[in-house]
TrEMBL record:
Annotated Gfo/Idh/MocA-like oxidoreductase N-terminal domain residues: 41-165
InterPro entries per the UniProt record, alphabetical: Gfo/Idh/MocA-like_OxRdtase_N, Gfo/Idh/MocA_oxidrdct_glycsds, GFO_IDH_MocA-like_dom, NAD(P)-bd_dom_sf, TAT_signal
Superkingdom of origin organism: Bacteria
Any matching Pfam family: GFO_IDH_MocA
Domain GFO/IDH/MocA-like oxidoreductase as annotated: residue spans: 189-322
Name listed for the protein in its UniProt record: Gfo/Idh/MocA family protein
Amino acid sequence: MSTSRRDVLKMTGMALASSVLPSVTILHPQRSFAGVNTDTLKVGLIGCGGRGSGAAAQALKADPNVVLHAVADIFKDKLEDSLTNLRKVHGDKVKVDEEHKFIGFDAYKKVLDSGVDVVILATPPHFRPEQLMATVQAGKHVFCEKPMAVDAPGVRKILEAAKIAKEKKISLLSGFCWRFHEPKRAIFDKIQDGAIGDVITVYNTYNTGTVWSHPRKPEWSDAEYVFRNWYYYTWLSGDHLVEQAIHSVDMMSWAFGDKLPLSAAGTGGRQVRTDPKYGNIYDHFAITYEYEDGAKGFHFSRQQVNCEGSYMCEALGSKGRAVANVSRNVHEITGRKKWKYSGAANDMYQTEHDELFAAIRKGEPINQGEYMANSTLLGIMGRMAAYTGRRITWDEAMNSTEKLGPDTYSFEMTPPLAEVARPGITTFS
């Protein structure tokens, strides 16, 4: 059955309403008091790269009675490096013995079976939908890094998993970190309260340099090389619009009150990042999102060295202008109601986990599944529009049948190596 834009709006509203309702669910009622859980919470880390290791460090800092219990990755060296670095910071809180170090493409299942209470999902985005579904079916609280998927079938699975999490009264927290940044919470709250009137246009950018790549080693198979350089393959990362610039797209959605657009159209390509080592992703995008009231969102992203940088979200309304500038750390409203943020900033990455573990302790689950799925699809539909040269509606994007990548994996497999997309030639499905 297809999912319409109206249906998704209804689901999102229900999720927001349910997320504020208290729950009496606790992990072990026999060892709690006043409805607050006091047990040692065991954390499982799935994906031991830089972001996963950082999230694990923040989880261990978020609560005095939390330990890292089990870890999983497809690369042993990544796993061991992660544990070494975490032990330097958190010492005895890292209680991962040899029996709880899991290597392989099915290692996440072993973490879920290891007795953990909370799971951190930080593998490449292609794997997120299947791993999130397994995590919520296992009844585990979860921190889920962005983006949540690389294609529409994945987004639909994320929405299904979010519904299961709600039914099970378990917390599902997203990795859209700016939603936890106090200066941005302040300015976007003001936008929603009407400080700039009706939001007419939102301009957002993510113009940066390039990112890491790992030179091939002789012992690596073709598949291992691709998995180690996953960022440069659309089926694994979703392209940089979905994998990184999605933060700016999410701020655009936030400024619009998370209402869904009618359509997206745009362009993109690769001008300088053309070497085969960069896989098949683009190095720039320009997308226009159209909304039913005539409002528009304009997104620009670029990953090219020695170019002007910009990382910001600017909302223009009927009564003023609001700017959340990441690059310059400026959060300001001009117009009829002038305002500038002057309070303290916080470590948004730490706040994510502080709020997650506080919710678990109180038995008041947080569920951000719908909005994190919708924001992910905003990036995916923008990529679809740029890759094909077509105007893509929200409903077309949500109901797309295009599935990126295989269902089974090994280092002996022949990795899918799609051509670089060519607008007007690449088709939509």
